[in-house]
Amino acid sequence: MEKAISFFVESKEKERLNSLSEEEKEDLGLLLLMQQSDRNDIVSEEEIMKELS
What we know:
- By secondary structure, the chain is mostly helical.
- It has a domain at 1-35.
- It is built from three helices and no strands.
- The chain is elongated.
């Protein structure tokens, strides 16, 4: 029974992900990356600008 429920949930998750637009997928990916980041790791504005140029 548990396997059937797990399969159903996974199936619905895949269905939901497939229905997202490219922009929504990018937003979701960014959200996941932000959640994994170390909030105590601080970077100065100067370092950011240096990387962007």
